[in-house]
TrEMBL record:
Keywords: DNA-binding, Transcription, Transcription regulation
Domain HTH iclR-type: start-end pairs: 2-61
Family matches, as SMART domains: HTH_ICLR
Superkingdom, taxonomy of origin: Bacteria
SUPFAM superfamilies in alphabetical order: GAF domain-like (SSF55781), Winged helix' DNA-binding domain (SSF46785)
Record has Transcription regulation as a keyword: yes
InterPro entries according to UniProt: GAF-like_dom_sf (IPR029016), HTH_MetabolicPath_Reg (IPR050707), Tscrpt_reg_IclR_C (IPR014757), Tscrpt_reg_IclR_N (IPR005471), WH-like_DNA-bd_sf (IPR036388), WH_DNA-bd_sf (IPR036390)
The name this protein goes by in its record: IclR family transcriptional regulator
Keyword Transcription regulation: yes
IclR-ED domain segment(s): 62-245
Length: 252
């Protein structure tokens, strides 16, 4: 039975490459055409493959419907939370999870610092979109035309001397973030608060959320906080693996 299931599942990646006829399926599986036909018929009955008028097979609509339903029912906060708690236990600082919704970047989870001096933030609160590290990651992943249009619409309040001053400067920073795959806010929103962030990606490779570690500079300097970047990125990769269903990246 396990061999039968294995063979049936092996048909799906073949058909993902494009329609294939019975002979091609049998050759790929290394089985007789009669065996391949039985497997294809079973998958067809479940809507996972479809036989075209030219007698070739392609992936069925039911497979796409199941994939879409699975994606819609994924709760990234639930998936990420235990990872955020573990990271907080390792570093002691405030950990946030954020998403991009309705032209805002919102915190959807937070694990508080264990230090008495903490930053103020709350779940559901929009972040300062032009300076926050999580916002930079989420906006940097947008298609270029959408990214440019959005940056032109934003206001650029000068929270501190390190705040992003205008759209050209923000676009330049987003390009850097997109290339390097991580982001920082080193005193851009509050002089005394620093932050490092990493992206969480879905099965399609797009950034679905971003997570960060933040700390006041009276607790840890910006340079010391940046040494946590590898740990933050490993945590983000672990969440991405759980969220997307893909194996984790090779640490090497």
């Amino acid at each position: 039975m396990s061999q039968t299931v294995d063979r049936a599942l092996s048909i799906l990646p073949l058909l993902a490459e494009g329609p294939a006829d019975l002979g091609q399926v049998a050759d790929r599986l290394g089985v007789h055409k009669s065996t391949a036909l039985r497997l294809l018929r079973t998958l067809h009955e479940h809507g996972l493959v479809y036989r075209q008028s030219d007698q070739r097979y392609r992936l069925g609509a039911r497979l796409f419907a199941l994939a879409q339903e699975a994606v819609e029912n994924l709760d990234i906060r639930e998936i990420a939370h235990s990872h955020l708690v573990r990271l907080n236990e390792q570093c002691g600082h405030t950990v946030h999870l954020a998403v991009h919704e309705d032209n805002e970047v919102l915190y959807i989870d937070k694990v508080e610092s264990r230090y008495p001096v903490r930053m103020y933030s709350r779940i559901g609160k929009p972040v300062a979109i032009t300076v926050a590290a999580v916002a930079k990651l989420l906006l940097a992943d947008l298609p270029e035309a959408e990214r440019r249009a959005l940056t032109e619409k934003l206001d650029y309040p000068l929270y501190t001397a390190r705040s992003t001053p205008n759209a050209p400067a923000f676009l330049k920073e987003l390009a850097t973030v997109r290339e390097q795959g991580w982001a920082t806010d080193l005193g851009g929103h509050e002089e005394s608060i620093n932050c490092v962030a990493a992206p969480i990606r879905g099965a399609d490779g797009r950034v679905a959320a971003a997570m960060s570690v933040s700390a006041p500079n009276v607790v840890v300097t910006a340079e010391e906080l940046l040494t946590l970047l590898p740990l933050v990125r490993r945590t983000a990769d672990a969440i991405s693996s759980d969220y997307s269903g893909r194996p984790p990246k090779d640490p090497s």
